[in-house]
Design brief:
About 35% of the residues lie in helices and about 25% in strands. The chain has about 270 residues and is an alpha+beta fold. The chain has a five-stranded antiparallel beta sheet. Strands 2-3-4-5-8 form a five-stranded antiparallel beta sheet, covered by helices on one side. About 40% of the residues are buried.
């Protein structure tokens, strides 16, 4: 497999909290969750967490020992937790956490694992495009935000309800019936969405963090077949460039589109 990567921080005054990396036959993408005010809980920060966890995952995958992807993730979460448990309040709901997407070519199949809202795009030999994501966080967020419907933004009532919604969403994190994300508890790895596909049926794959997937899911600049074509023509940096150009058009006004860290990796299956 041949891989190309691109990543872009959402803001120039803060570190990129995405992580992407590859070893022969496998790729890892993490999208860190930045919780405001969490510095008092963890001196390392979200970017440290994603890079530490991502590097550990790549180390596990590089052994090529055929271990289950969930087992590799569980060990990596546990190892990363040990690295800062003594100095940081890693059990607090606001401490650093991250979405996880792992994809690996193994025994003629493409295996995948997803925790939370990153995107895996399959470029199928028959010309189709299939997109896989873990929709549980989005569903939980939608349900928790329902009380905001019809409330005027910027009002004290809106701010009060929004704070309550945030607490309700936090209570669903890493809980049955809620959604799962990499944090301090390795048991989350066994709740990941997993699957596999014959490599012979794929031209390639792409993985996108939430900030990059906005090209389709939020901004509607193209559809997923269009993303496939853009990757073929301009590579991962072309996808991110389109997202950033669209965000820049808002000019910082009341309808400004706030950029998020954006990362894309594109794998081609070599004959």
């Amino acid at each position: 497999m041949q891989v190309s990567l691109a990543t872009s921080a959402g803001r120039g005054d803060r570190p990129n909290e995405d992580f992407v990396g590859a070893v022969p036959g496998a790729v890892v993408l993490l999208d860190g969750a930045g919780i405001p005010g969490a510095e008092a809980l963890c001196a390392h920060g979200v970017a440290w967490y994603t890079h530490r966890l991502g590097g550990t995952l790549l180390g596990g995958l590089s052994r090529a020992d055929g271990r289950d992807l969930a087992a590799i993730l569980a060990d990596a979460i546990a190892e990363t937790a040990v690295a800062h448990r003594a100095t940081c309040d890693i059990a607090d709901p606001s401490s650093p956490q991250a979405t996880v997407l792992m994809a690996r070519a193994h025994r003629g199949r493409l295996e995948h694992l997803l925790l939370a809202d990153s995107y895996l795009m399959l470029d199928e030999v028959g010309g189709g495009v299939r997109v896989i994501t873990d929709e549980r966080e989005v569903a939980a967020r939608r349900e928790c935000a329902a009380p905001l419907a019809g409330v005027t933004p910027g009002t004290p009532e809106y701010d009060h309800i929004r704070a309550s919604c945030a607490l309700a969403l936090r209570a669903r994190r890493n809980q049955p019936g809620g959604y799962w994300i990499a944090k301090d508890d390795p048991r989350a790895a066994w709740e990941a969405a997993t699957g596999s596909h014959p490599l012979g049926e794929l031209h390639g794959i792409a993985v996108l963090s939430n900030g990059a997937s906005r090209i389709v899911s939020q901004y509607g600049l193209t559809d997923w077949p269009g993303v496939r074509d853009l990757l073929a023509a301009e590579g991962p940096s072309g996808v991110i460039h389109r997202v950033r150009a669209f965000e820049a058009e808002s000019g910082g006004g009341p309808d400004a589109r706030v950029p998020d860290d954006a990362t894309v990796a594109h794998y081609r299956v070599m004959p």
